[in-house]
Specification:
The protein is mainly α. It has helices at residues 3-16, 19-27, 33-58, 60-65, 82-100, 102-107, 109-128, 133-159, 167-178, 181-192, 202-213, 217-220, 228-233, 237-250, 282-303, 306-312, 317-328, 330-338, 347-367, 371-398, 405-457. The chain has a single domain, classed as Up-down Bundle (Growth Hormone, Chain: A).
């Protein structure tokens, strides 16, 4: 490209405004059908991530039935049990979120959205053909790396495509769409795990079915543009403005005819991980690290152990999978219900309220034995977990600026991966030593810490545009 062409492009970008102008335009967008379509398309990509993540608990009885892993182990860090399978999943997630969250900041949301999914799908296919516990654990760990990168990328992607006034609803819909995967994987596990179709263990079929479906990502990626904010912060103002022109036109918004500022585009300053541990990021990083360490016990301490907890209460494997399937319907339904109030309250108070409910319904679950009451409590725990989930996925991305959004969110979210890694061993040990009541006592303690941390130190974000002070 000649110097004259470069100057012409810079002049055009300057006339169309700098990165702050892109942020202002995004904040002014109405809720158009195109915006909602983009949220749903990204959520459909995340559907396979949730499928892959949640079959961890649902295929556990099958791994036990095939003789690969046991329900509990004599040693605390026993690598022959289901706890090790859960731990391998979240150890991989930790590596993906902590070490590789920067990839979406460096290469773009769209590129990583596509390739991270293909990476973990391939690893899951390899895992499905393993015949030793070591092989299963290794490939589950590798798959977890890709899932971790994908989670952070989708969160940053959606945060940067919708204005603040509808971001809560966007994440609620995102979670509702993605988590329709849970009843699907629960139904497949209920049907296939007790069987061995064509001489192949049922749990392997559950894994392979999800991997086959994920190839749809090649179609989805054609309809999703790059984040305009990411483009703007990386000196690609012309592309950012062009994408926003299309979004504005789809909403019937008058064409953008000038900028509030005439700022030539510039590349975002490089920020390394060391800077995240200094002001102005340090206090937010510490807060959300503590939050994620604790919230994982509420979410995964229950979600990954539903069938096992039911079996421990004297319910057969087949019945436990049936009850788990019923409980799983709360995953997509709860966020849809939460969408009615998602943007009416501060994110921090929604998180605190959900944490209170998780503790209360969890203790009730530990006391009941009747199937109807167990299912009801399981549904309410799951609904509370999903309310917390959509809220914090939005919360921990919107508090950080675009230049560091993916890596900062990945850094703090990695702490939930650490907690979930050890929760597999801790829950297995607690279940053996103190029963179901002990498990929910552990979960309740974690929720109390969540409530204190977020209520006291959580910032207010309602109605605040991204990157604009």
């Amino acid at each position: 490209m000649s110097a004259a062409e470069i100057d012409a492009r810079s002049d055009l970008a300057a006339r169309r405004g700098g990165p702050d102008e892109i942020a202002h335009r995004l904040e002014s967008l109405p809720a158009s059908s195109l915006l909602w379509r983009l949220v749903i398309l990204l959520s459909l990509g995340g559907w396979f991530e949730v499928y892959d993540l949640f079959f961890t608990g649902y295929i556990a009885p099958g791994l036990n039935r095939s003789g690969l892993l046991t329900t509990t182990t004599q040693a605390f860090f026993g690598f022959s049990g289901i706890g090790a399978f859960v731990a391998a999943t979240f150890a991989g997630l930790f590596v993906g979120t902590f070490f590789l969250g920067f990839l979406a900041d460096r290469f773009g949301r769209r590129f990583i959205f596509t390739w991270a999914l293909l990476f973990y799908t391939a690893a899951s296919v390899v895992m499905a053909f393993q015949t030793t516990s070591d092989g299963v654990l290794l490939w589950r760990f590798i798959a977890g790396i890709g899932i971790g990168v994908e989670i952070i990328t989708i969160d940053a992607y959606i945060t940067e495509l919708v204005p603040s006034w509808m971001r809560g609803r966007a994440f609620a819909v995102n979670q509702a769409v993605m988590f329709t995967a849970v009843p699907v994987v629960a139904a497949l596990a209920w049907w296939l795990v007790p069987l061995s179709p064509y001489g192949i263990d049922g749990w392997r079929w559950v894994v392979l079915i999800g991997a086959a479906g994920s190839m749809a990502i090649w179609i989805l990626r054609l309809f999703v543009p790059e984040s305009p904010l990411w483009l703007a912060r990386n000196g690609r103002m012309e592309e950012a403005a062009r994408i926003l022109d299309v979004i504005e036109a789809s909403a019937g918004t008058p064409a953008h005819s000038g900028s509030r500022t005439a700022v030539a585009p510039s590349r975002a300053a490089k920020v390394g991980y060391a800077e995240l541990f200094r002001p102005p990021y340090l206090s937010l990083v510490v807060l959300f690290m503590v939050f994620n360490l604790c919230q994982a016990f509420g979410v995964y301490g229950f979600a990954n152990w539903v069938p096992a907890l039911l079996v421990e209460k004297g319910i057969t494997v087949t019945k436990s999978l049936q009850y788990s399937f019923i409980i799983a319907f709360a995953y997509p339904i709860a966020p849809l219900l939460a969408a009615s109030f998602a943007d009416k309250f501060e994110r921090k108070w929604i998180i605190c309220g959900a944490a209170v409910a998780i503790g209360a319904f969890g203790m009730a679950f530990s006391q009941f034995t009747r199937p109807a009451l167990l299912i009801a409590c399981g549904v309410l725990i799951t609904a509370s977990n999903m309310t917390m989930s959509y809220a914090y996925h939005a919360y921990q991305t919107e508090v950080f600026p675009t230049a560091v959004r993916a890596r900062a969110a990945g850094l703090v979210y990695s702490m939930s991966r650490v907690a979930a890694t050890f929760s597999g061993f801790i829950v297995a040990w607690t279940l053996r030593e103190a029963g179901v009541g002990g498990v929910f006592g552990l979960i309740t303690t974690a929720m109390v810490i969540v409530i204190i941390a977020i209520a006291v130190w959580g910032p207010n974000v309602r109605g605040k545009p991204l990157d604009v002070t």
